[in-house]
Amino acid sequence: MTETYVAKSLQGRIVAFTRCTDEVCIYLPDDMYEKIGSITHEQWAEQKQSYINRDDGNLDLYDDTVNAAWQRLSINTIDRASARKIKLLLGEYFPRIWRGVYDVHNHYYYNSINARKMYGGSFIGSNVAASNIFDAVESLFRFVEPTKENLSAYGHKIREALILTCTEVESAWKVCVGGEQR
Fold first, then answer.
1. Into how many domains does the chain fold?
2. Co-location of 133 and 75 in the same domain
3. 5, 176, 19, 180: which is closest to 88 by C-alpha?
């Protein structure tokens, strides 16, 4: 069975790694088509011995898949404590949240999807709503620069932009998590 994990890199990026039959494949999901490496289970078993003899590895605290990805990416790259097993199977996703289309024959990348074709009018509606938010906030920033010094600024336009933004974000989350149509 394929197990997929997600973790943060020490630089704050998302790192995904999948335990396949004979290897652990490692991806940076925010870089489309980028598989950044893999390590076979035999390679990890050999490498593991060098960490067991040292105290700084803390191998017992983490799953073998997490440790293998940590070692393959170099020990200063991945925050093992942030690693979580994904409950969905590889290639499954919540509706309207893009995770790529998993290709069973190729662990090297995710294929992009055509959102307009897949979601039709709701995709266009989401883009229009996002454009309205961007326009409102951009218009606001012409008068109130978004700096620390202006955090105490208040006005009806700021209130309207915040309400519009919060309402649209809440609506989008409900649609994504609940599977409702917009």
1. 2
2. no
3. 5
pTM: 0.54
pLDDT tens for the chain, 182 residues: list them.
578 888 888 888 888 888 878 888 888 776 655 667 788 888 888 888 777 766 555 777 888 888 888 888 776 578 888 888 888 776 666 666 655 555 556 554 455 566 677 777 777 788 888 888 899 899 999 989 989 999 899 899 899 989 989 988 888 777 766 655 54
Q: For residue 109, which amino acid is it?
A: Y
Written as six digits, the tokens of 164 are: 């519009």
Which parts of the chain fold into alpha helices (H)?
A: 41-52, 64-72, 115-119, 121-141, 156-178
For residue 147, what are its two tokens?
Answer: 């700096």
Looking at the domain assignment, is residue 157 inside a domain? yes
Q: Which amino acid is at 68?
A: A
Summary count for the chain: helices (H), strands (E): 5, 5
Residue 99 in any domain: the answer is no
Q: Which domain holds residue 144?
A: 115-178
Is 90 inside a domain boundary? no
For residues 111, 37, 16 and 122, what is the CA-based torsion angle, rounded to 10 degrees?
A: -20
**12 and 65: one domain?**
yes
SS3 5: strand
Residue with tokens 């011995």: 49
57 is written with which tokens? 């590895």
Hey, which residues does 101 pair with through a beta bridge?
Answer: 111
